[in-house]
Each structure stands twice: as structure tokens, then as C-alpha cells.
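U., I forgot to send this yesterday:
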Amino acid sequence: MPASATKSLRVAVLADSDTRWKWGALTAQRLAPATAEIRLDGYLLRGRATPTARQLKEVGVRADSLREVTGVEFLRAMTEQSYDILVLALVGGGVQAMLHGLRHAWGSGERPVVVTGYVGVVYEKLADGLLLRHGADLVLANSRHDADRFRAVYEGVGADARAVTEVALPFLGGAPYTGEHEPYTVVFAAQPSVPDSRKDRTYLLNRLIEHARRHPEREVLLKLRSKPGEHTTHIEELPYQKLVQGKDVPANFRLVYGHMGEVLDRTDLLVTISSTAALESLHRRIPTVVLTDLGVREVLGNHHFTGSGCLASWDQLDAGHRPAADEEWVARQGVAADGTYDTAFDTARERIAGLLGRSGDLAPLAPYYTPETAPGYLPGILARHHLGPDGAPLPGAPAADREPGPVRQIVRRAARGAYRHGVQRVAPVIRRMGEL
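Result:
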């Protein structure tokens, strides 16, 4: 498709969780020229974190079509449908499997521009996750800091680093903070997997409740990502809804769900361990705290915020501390609080337009990992998605030519329910028994 003929674009997004669907769909919209008319087709990869209807509604992104698929079904759809842009919003292993599957499916024929990236802060498995994403036409970095790190990893292993493209998180927005609300509102943005122990999660919950008691004039909100039985990008074994049961909580403390942007509209102080919500808050210049109570550690992800001016403890917050973010740090993290957010995707749009202009001449996808470079690693990643070492579907791979019948849907829901029950109920009990 010539770059001048971008009045109508067909875009597909493959996502494996609610947060990645949000990132992928919003990224797709940001990447398209402002004058383009977009048709957005969503594909939800079937798995443990496939979002529920409620989670999809909360994300608030409308797609022209949306359906659940297996990896093999998706690859088949990509040979039957013609798209201009494909966004892979998956975990690293999922991206790598789809890149090889698509390379096999498309061969050297015409294909869309393939884009991938990260939902938020990249604080662990940097090299592993990046190399699993190598092979896409664009690997998006949400900040200048990330773009520098991404290129260094690729160049360090001899991989082509030209795909790395600096953008920003696609869901930043909302009105800048202008002053205190009535009542003054403190929001703790919970994370499904950080911290992961009952002791630490109970500690954070107790400190939040105690803060509400110390400041009865404030409204104190515990912002939750999902309701019991739902999964997000990460497994939540000990949901705060369960931990708060039976506790005596003050009247000014409550649990809230909903769109993070709407919660931030009434927030005067955002508190978290290391959530991407901190970047959303900083973008709007809302006072933001990244807690140090459990240490500043890589496993928590709060080490990412060293130098930000946002690190503080509950003791400091109880005493009235108000953080001031470091402007230079904020600028390097792609938060774009200085008003440059509107241009953050310009470079990516230009690259997309250039690639669309020669879509018929795009080279086959070329991931860094191949059966030659990673013979002991790649086959296992592909097999998890029922693909062989060459990216072709394995015999007996699950695929369907039609929507599943009522019985199959019931069995699938029951299986998911059993899995979630095992993660949230059985696994913690077994873990505690093992510690006796």
C-alpha cells in the first residue's frame, strides 16, 4: 500500500491479557496517521489470562471485531485476512512463537508491518524478553531510557537493532493535576504479583488501613486491577479482596475498581510499589510515591524509580510527606509531563508509513533465535504454542473452523475456574504447608 494511500488501514492486534489488549489496541491507534480511518480487529489468545467481558469493558477500547483464538487459529486467520499493521501484544515467548509461525505462514509473500513492545516498565528479564521480541519490524521502547537499553542488548549479541523505536506508553493522558480535592484522596495502586508473599501483602494492606485511621479527613482508596476469579497479565495468588475480609476498616477506606484514568481524576497522592500507574500519575503531575517499606529491590521493580524523587515510606507519608518528582528523570522515562507527548509517536508513524509504502517488498520476518542459534531453547517455546521448529503447526494442534459449541464453552469455563481456584486457593495452602 503506498504511503499516500493511508486513508483506510486494517489493523490486527493479538493480545493475551486485559492489560496487553489495552496496550496493543491503544498502540495501534497511536501508530496510525491522524487522517487514517482504522478498522481494528482484535484477537485474544486463549490461555490462563484471557480477559473477561468485564475486563474488556473496563479497558474501554472498541474493536470492530473481537474473538478468542488459539495460536494456530490466529496464524490461519493471518493467511485468510489482509492487514496493513499487526500488533503482537504478548509475553516474550508468545511473540517469538508467532513470529516464527507467521514467517512460515507468509513465506516471502506480501505481509503487514509487524509491531511489538512492552506494556510498561521493563525491570526484569531484559535480555530474555528483548531477544524473544526480536524479528518484528518495530520493537517499541516506551522511553529514551528503554530505547538505549534495547539497542545495547541487540547490538551486544550481534542482532539488528534498527527495529527499536522510541515512543511512549499509549495510555497516558488526562487533565494535569491542579490542586487538592475535597476530600483529599490517597490511592494505593495494587499489583497482582508484587509483592508475592502473604506477609508483605498483609503488611501493605495494614499500613494503608492505618493511614486511613490516622487521617480521617482523607479518603483512602485501594485500587484493584481485577475481581476475584479474574486474571491479568500476572497471576494473583493472594488478592487483597481476600486479605481484607474480616478486618475492621475505617469509614474513609474502601476498595475501588474501574479505569485507572478515572481514579486518577480525583487522586491527590498515588502510592504503589512499582506499578505502571505511577507513570500515568507522573504524566499528570500528581504527587506520586513508590514505597521503600519492603526495600528497594529488583524483585519488586521499585529499583526502576531510583533517582525519580518518588521513593518514600509509609512512615513518611503518615507524617505528611509530599514527594516532588525529578524533572530530568521523568523526561528520560517517556512520561512526557512537559507537553511533548503529542509528538511521542511521530517517529514510529513515519517508519510505519515508509514500510507500508513497500509492503509488497518487505523481507520475511527474521528473528534472532533460530534452530541454529538457539537449538536448545527455541523448540520448547514453539512447542508450547503447538508449532514445530520451522514454525509450522504440529500434527494435532488445536484449531477450530467454527465457534465452539455450548458444551465446549462450559468445559472451557470450568477448566479456567479450576485453574484459578488452584492458583488462588490451593497453591498458597500447599506453599504454607511446605514452610512448616
